[in-house]
Write a structure and sequence with these properties.
The protein has an eight-stranded mixed sheet, with helices on both faces. A three-stranded antiparallel sheet has the order 9-10-11. The chain is α/β, with parallel strands linked by helices.
């Protein structure tokens, strides 16, 4: 009976990279032989990454899938704290390109077996000798595992130029370390059936390389600009919305202010009237996956804090005032023809009681400045409070997700291994035995 893997082997390979990213938090990551971008689609959710790059020799395949890396509507509603730039290149891993030097992590997942041995040597020189990433993850089939698949004759894929034993992979990896100043750890994914692991090893063997000398080695290498070449073709470049953009920062701050001001207004009205308003105020989108669940927990905690803060003491924090009909701001020198009640929420309350408002604005005076003249915010005459209609609930932008985005949301949890291109230097689809397991 053929061994089976749970999760499937292709998912285990990607999960290995994801776990490494979670532990080490690299800021600049490049996936060599990215093919249909499936690994990149998962890595884009890790907010410690500021530059995410994919390289593949098959530009047509990249072009078919690269737009799946574009920001979703939730990325605009809940932007990142740090910047994220995604770039896709067409190029060969045997050619140098200065734009890929000095990354924190480079991945090569089931790629090198598609190269000739001469190209493997050039791959080593380009990746370890020229690009000099701080860490490199290389996975490749372990040929010692192949006899456990009785239907498999020859290599696992018709485009494979070789499949190494553990000793052959170790010999190559140690030579790379000696030539280019790295150390390596050996592991893998896809365990053998009970009692056979030591004899045959992992189905996919993995080498995790770490550059010796840290940033000092990198700085010395980058002092020489004479060898800077740009051989790759840029196919795609996209900056994600982030709080580094002042316009984005202001929009997010306004959403937070209006949301919590509305919560205070509602609690105050409940206290005054004795009637509970069960209508939920739409919450600004918090993203997806682990980030979403953390934000949801924080939101629930904040709701409890708000409820506690808005008891009988809320009358000292929020008050109602009369303003000119149809408007929620004061106008000097104009007689009020008709009065309308509103709730005045002091900015000092919003800034002191809600950490995200304080973090986004930085100071109370800066909060007032950022809200001033914003079309969605009505401030009191002296600019010290947000004014809301007494009975009308505020409206907010909702999280509208297209069908395409709904599919992309699965990438956060789905570690699916994309089919590879039919060209050398590009990750290839494995034989049916791999799909079955």
């Amino acid at each position: 009976m053929e061994p089976t893997f749970s999760p499937p082997l292709h998912r285990q390979r990607h999960q290995f990279v994801i776990d490494f990213v979670k532990r080490n938090k690299p800021k600049k990551v490049v996936d060599l032989g990215c093919s249909e971008c499936s690994l990149l689609k998962q890595l884009k959710f890790h907010r410690e990454i500021e530059l995410l790059v994919g390289v593949d020799i098959d530009g047509a395949k990249v072009k078919k899938k690269m737009h799946g890396l574009a920001p979703m509507s939730t990325d605009y509603l809940q932007p990142r704290d740090d910047q994220l730039l995604i770039e896709m290149y067409q190029g060969s891993v045997t050619q140098r390109d200065a734009r890929l030097r000095g990354f924190d992590l480079a991945t090569s997942i089931e790629l090198i077996e598609h190269l000739t041995l001469a190209d493997v040597e050039r791959f080593s020189e380009v990746v370890f000798g020229y690009m000099t990433p701080a860490a490199v993850i290389v996975s490749t089939p372990n040929s010692e595992f192949n006899p456990l698949f009785p239907r498999l004759a020859g290599f696992r894929h018709s485009d494979h130029k070789f499949e190494w034993t553990r000793a052959e992979f170790k010999s190559w990896a140690l030579k790379v370390c000696e030539d280019h100043g790295y150390e390596v750890e050996f592991t893998g994914v896809g365990r053998a059936p009970p009692g056979q692991q030591e004899r045959v090893g992992f189905c996919s063997q993995i080498g995790v390389f770490h550059r010796l000398g840290g940033g000092e080695v990198c700085n010395l290498l980058f002092c020489d600009d004479a060898d800077d070449v740009f051989s790759y073709t840029l196919l795609y470049s996209k900056n994600y919305p982030s709080l580094h953009d002042n316009n984005v920062l202001r929009r997010v701050l306004v959403m937070e202010v209006l949301y919590w001001a509305e919560q205070l207004r509602r609690r105050w009205v409940e206290e005054e009237t004795g009637q509970r308003d069960d209508a939920d105020t739409p919450r600004p989108a918090e993203g997806d996956g682990e980030e979403y669940h953390r934000a949801s927990e924080q939101h629930l905690e904040m709701e409890e804090q708000t409820a506690a803060a808005c008891g009988a003491a809320m009358k000292n924090l929020v008050e109602h005032q009369d303003v000119e009909a149809g408007e929620l701001f004061w106008t000097d020198g104009q007689e009020q023809q008709e009065s309308r009640r509103c709730v005045s929420v002091p900015l000092s309350v919003l800034w002191s009681r809600f950490p995200k408002v304080a973090a986004l604005s930085g100071s109370l005076s800066n909060l007032r400045r950022l809200l001033m003249d914003h079309p969605d915010v009505k401030l009191s005459q002296d600019g010290s409070a947000v004014l809301l209609n007494y009975q009308e609930q505020a409206s907010y932008s909702m999280n509208l997700i297209t069908e395409e985005e709904e599919e992309d949301r699965g990438d956060l949890e789905d570690s699916g291994y994309a089919e590879a291109s039919q060209c050398s230097h590009s990750v290839e689809p494995e034989e049916d035995w791999d799909a079955d397991v």
